[in-house]
Amino acid sequence: MALIENVDNMTQLKRLIIGITGASGVIYGKRLLEVLNDAGVETHLVISKAAEMTIAYELDQKGADLKKLASLSYPPGDIGAAIASGSFKTMGMIIAPCSVRTMSEIATGVTSSLITRAADVVLKERRKLALMIRETPFHLGHLRAMTSLAEMGAIIAPPLPAFYAEPETIDDLVTQSVCRVLDLYEIETDLTKRWGEHLKKGQR
Prior knowledge:
Elements: H1 2-11, E1 15-20, H2 26-38, E2 42-47, H3 49-59, H4 63-67, E3 72-74, E4 92-98, H5 100-108, H6 114-124, E5 128-133, H7 140-152, E6 155-156, H8 170-183
Helix pairs in contact: 2-8, 5-6, 5-7
């Protein structure tokens, strides 16, 4: 009986690792935490040192402000953290935004920080890793790294706007991108405008 209960608990597990790196677009990480909070998902957050600077520049906030939105947070150098072990069960990990440096480290198996270590663990355990990569244009090295990651099972998910959703604000654009990534983890919200569903009756 206890074994069945444990299995049920595992299937109902709602726990995600969130990494925020120093690329432009830290608003994606912040909005992701807000949406997951409202959805009742347990979040384990790591903010890189470079991201602390980007948060101050782009949001006029501190990393500590974003940490308050997470269930638990870890210093980027804490390689002994729970999320550095494959035995710590999660639904996977989302890096939002994901810098090219972080992407490249993950692609080569380098784990110089808790973010890249946690990502490596997610891949080896065959869990979902979504990378909201923020860079443009891409050179051939970037594209090859993305190909390698896709072959390893990672999901390359740049935050590209969906204009069919008729966004009116920056928050609309950010929320749509964030919720589309959460679709990959089957986390439902009522914040996403979906193609076909947005059309008025008689337009289909």
